[in-house]
Amino acid sequence: MFLAILAAAAPVATAAPVGAVTVPPTAVPTGPSWGSEHLAVLYLIQILFIISVIGLIALMSIQTTKTEGLSGSIGGRMESAYRGRLGMEQQLARATTGFAVAFMFLAILNFVITR
Predict the structure, then answer these.
(1) How many angstroms from the chain centroid is the CA of residue 79?
(2) Which position has the higher pLDDT, 18 or 98?
(3) pLDDT tens digit sequence for 20-77
(4) How much is the pLDDT for 57?
(5) Which helix (H) or strand (E) holds 85?
(6) Whole-number Cα distances in Å, 46 to 58, 101, 108
(7) Are 59 and 95 contacting, i.e. CB atoms less than 8 angstroms apart?
(8) What is the dihedral of CA 53, 109, 45, 48, to 10 degrees?
């Protein structure tokens, strides 16, 4: 009984109203992308992208914040007076910048290839 009521209430397909805009089927790009035709290149870019993501996360978690250094100098930590980590902090900042640029470049390249 309940199924008969649902079947009777099912919408009926009708023609589009006059003046309705329809999208032609050729407007949607179909077919294989460049990346699906060149799987080795696609996989290489995706592997490099994952490596850059993991490296960027690791480098950002290793770095000290600017406020951490300030609180250490106010609190009187001895290691902040020596400035021995300045070279290491600069190297980490440069590596982080390199990984961030690689991340952005590979993200855009991955989008263009799989489009």
Answers:
(1) 37
(2) 98
(3) 666 666 655 667 888 889 999 999 999 999 999 999 999 999 987 766 555 555 555 5
(4) 96
(5) none
(6) 18, 15, 11
(7) yes
(8) -30
User: CA 91, CA 103: separation in Å to the nearest integer?
Assistant: 18
Provide the whole-model pTM. 0.58
- Distance between first and last Cα of the chain: 49
Half-sphere exposure of 28 (CA within 13 A, CB side): 5
What's the CA gap between 106 and 99, in Å, rounded?
10
Average pLDDT over residues 87-94: 88
Instruction: Quote the DSSP letter at residue 65.
Output: P
In the chain, domain spans: 32-114
